[in-house]
Amino acid sequence: MRHAPFGPEGCHIGWTGTAGDGDGGAARVYLHGLGAASAVYHAHVAAVPALAGRRSLFVDLPGHGISDRPADFGYTLEDHADALACALDAAGVRGAEVVGHSMGGSVAIVLAVRRPELVSRLVLTEANLDPRPPLTAGSSMIAAYPEDAFVRGGGFEETLERVGPVWRATMRLTDPTALHRSACALVRGTRPTMREMLLGLDIPRTYLVGGRSGELPGRTELTAAGVAVRTVPGAGHNVMFDNAPGFAAAVAARP
């Protein structure tokens, strides 16, 4: 495990990783979604032959997994991106391929805009692109609670029951305040929006959608802007669990 300071004094963002075999390819940085952890969601995929050999970093965003969870931190998408930049600076990473799932994809977009030298390619797995998403068990329903009601009034426990065993396995390790503030940030979005930032980027961009997730809003606009949109068959939102070989092949494929 490695770590780097970020934000409030004494706080550290943590990651694990592999050194790679020196094939010269860009490092891959894997980012988890809301209430998740990067190694849990991606380590099994990074070991697939199509992806193995590259230096790989599994970074846990503030409030999640092995990273610190300060109470006096905003947990906005910009805050997460700045903390991630601290990790990549400390790791000596430049021009990475950033593979971000859900909220992690949103953070990756913000990072690419704020620190373009750190990112050479984006692979976004069902990333949040727009504010005010439909009400689901995820960010929108978490954000519907007032913060105190979520953190101390039973909302966190209700959410753990609602999301089921797979998501609960990592969500229960997430700080409730960080989870709520991160969810609110996703619902609020960014200005310009994540979608607008993605459309304006001039780097290779791939957007992965699970075949069971339905039609991707704005797909035509994304492809017209040069974003390679790929559907992974037999998968829902957690593409890397539902079809790991298909996910690995889509990440390995060039736009």
Automatic annotation (TrEMBL):
Residues 29-148 form the AB hydrolase-1 domain. Keywords: Hydrolase. Pfam families: Abhydrolase_1. SUPFAM superfamilies: alpha/beta-Hydrolases. GO terms for molecular function: hydrolase activity. InterPro entries: AB_hydrolase_1 (IPR000073), AB_hydrolase_fold (IPR029058), Carboxylesterase_BioH (IPR050228). Transmembrane segments: none annotated. This is Alpha/beta fold hydrolase. The lineage of its organism: Bacteria, Bacillati, Actinomycetota, Actinomycetes, Kitasatosporales.
